[in-house]
Write a structure and sequence with these properties.
mainly alpha, 5 helices, 0% strand
């Protein structure tokens, strides 16, 4: 009879301990800070035009960030560790996407400058050829 009463009481104690442990889980400030840094990197990449110029890298960053958010929902140390790892990967992907977008814009600008220089060179050659002819006739 005593054994039958002890088992339910022990089960209740274990359930209560687990419930308190789950309810009182404290997330590390590092986790929250990393998620904020990743969110800022994603925002910066969007502003830099990575959605257009570096879509695969941007999609990878968004996917990893979403996975990190899901890992946070586990409310456990393991979930937080996984979230931090994924968030760091997402941040790196977002930074790469932003850099790729900036490089693409700079390449386009350099190409425009090159075309402008070439147009000026042609104009200068035409002017030089036009002014050389009258001087030869005198």
């Amino acid at each position: 009879m005593k054994m039958q009463r002890i088992i339910p009481v022990a089960a209740l104690c274990v359930a209560a301990i687990l419930g308190v442990a789950c309810a009182s889980y404290q997330r590390s400030p590092e986790v929250t800070a990393q998620m904020a840094r990743t969110e800022a990197s994603l925002q910066q990449a969007r502003q830099d035009g990575a959605q257009v110029e570096a879509l695969p890298q941007m999609q990878s960053a968004r996917d990893k960030y979403a996975q990190a958010q899901q890992s946070l929902e586990k409310n456990s140390r393991e979930g937080d560790q996984e979230a931090v790892l994924l968030a760091k990967q997402a941040q790196a992907d977002a930074q790469f996407a932003a850099a790729k977008a900036q490089a693409s814009r700079q390449e386009k600008a350099a190409s425009e400058v090159g075309r402008g220089v070439e147009a000026l060179r042609e104009e200068a050659n035409r002017n030089a050829a036009g002014s050389a002819s009258p001087a030869d006739t005198q």
